[in-house]
Structure to design on (343 residues):
């Protein structure tokens, strides 16, 4: 829904789509709603995690030899050891497959393209990561991490940060992805909406100086940080300031105000999280209005909507999505496979 509004200002969006609360899904020729790179990469993360945890992972479009594909199929028959190396290898394969997918034509971010091309060269992932980048490509795809059953809190945090760091090596990209996954986890576990921002702030404060060395290795050293704790604390501090902007905007909520003006444009990781949280909370967590409000914004509308939709989905499940939307969404079978495996 956010794809056709991305890069437009509010006057242009209003002229083309009318008021935010009347937006509908944009049908493509053939009656299918095409998703953006956000959902494509979310599927890459989700299917990689399904692979290493023994869930169902769609293999269409995967590259590799018959032996490699057979090994991946065997991994899905029983859970593989959930080690950083296993998760990294599965994520790398899926990201490289996405890089070469002919449907990867939805204005993907340059950081993701450059990092995935480097990952294909089979170099250490820390060397492939774009250390200066904290773009929202790191956390637009992280929601599946929160939904995998049986993970410990440390595993969720480590995987959320690792999947971000494979492409975006800035500490704020890691922290925002971890915080986004925690928001999805809280909502899936019935966190009251009135407590959500406070719970996220407490989590960020507890995590400020926790560097998951088993998952991140020497990334902080490569980034030139004086020590790992200082490196990661910088990212959490930026996320805490972004949460403050959400709290401030919700003191006098205006559901008709451009969310990007109220909180942030969302091109960077912590802003995408904050603006999506605002869009979700300003409509009291309802699914359809959260997506409409997020897509009807002047910033990175598809990423903001992807995250707002993830929050709504985690809170409500499938039954709150309009049936006519569920029937026409691209990659419906793959999305359903992950939902069925982990519900």
């Amino acid at each position: 829904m956010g794809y056709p509004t991305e890069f437009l200002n509010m006057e242009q969006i209003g002229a083309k789509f009318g008021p935010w609360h009347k937006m509908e899904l944009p049908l493509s020729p053939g009656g299918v709603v095409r998703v953006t790179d956000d959902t494509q990469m979310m599927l890459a993360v989700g299917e990689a995690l399904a692979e290493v945890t023994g869930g169902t992972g769609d293999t269409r479009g995967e590259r590799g030899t018959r032996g490699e594909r057979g090994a991946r199929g065997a991994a899905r028959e029983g859970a593989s050891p959930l080690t950083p190396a296993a998760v990294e290898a599965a994520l790398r394969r899926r990201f490289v497959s996405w890089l070469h997918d002919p449907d990867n034509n939805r204005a993907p971010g340059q950081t993701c393209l450059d990092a995935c091309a480097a990952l294909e060269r089979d170099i250490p992932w820390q060397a492939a990561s774009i250390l200066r980048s904290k773009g929202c490509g790191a956390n637009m795809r992280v929601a599946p991490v929160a939904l995998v059953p049986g993970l410990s809190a440390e595993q969720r945090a480590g995987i959320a940060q690792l999947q971000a760091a494979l492409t975006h090596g800035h500490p704020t990209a890691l922290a925002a992805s971890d915080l986004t996954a925690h928001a999805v986890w809280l909502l899936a576990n019935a966190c009251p909406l009135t407590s959500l921002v406070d719970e996220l702030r407490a989590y960020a404060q507890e995590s400020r100086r926790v560097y998951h060395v088993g998952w991140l290795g020497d990334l902080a050293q490569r980034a030139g940080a004086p020590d790992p704790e200082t490196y990661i604390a910088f990212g959490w501090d930026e996320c805490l300031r972004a949460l403050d902007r959400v709290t401030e905007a919700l003191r006098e909520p205006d559901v008709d105000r451009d969310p990007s003006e109220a909180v942030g444009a969302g091109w960077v990781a912590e802003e995408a999280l904050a603006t999506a949280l605002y869009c979700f909370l300003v409509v009291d967590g309802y699914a359809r209005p959260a997506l409409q409000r997020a897509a009807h914004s002047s910033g990175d509308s598809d990423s903001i909507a992807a995250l707002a939709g993830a929050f709504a989905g985690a809170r409500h499940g499938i039954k709150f999505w309009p049936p006519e939307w569920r029937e026409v969404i691209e990659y419906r079978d793959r999305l359903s496979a992950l939902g069925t495996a982990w519900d």
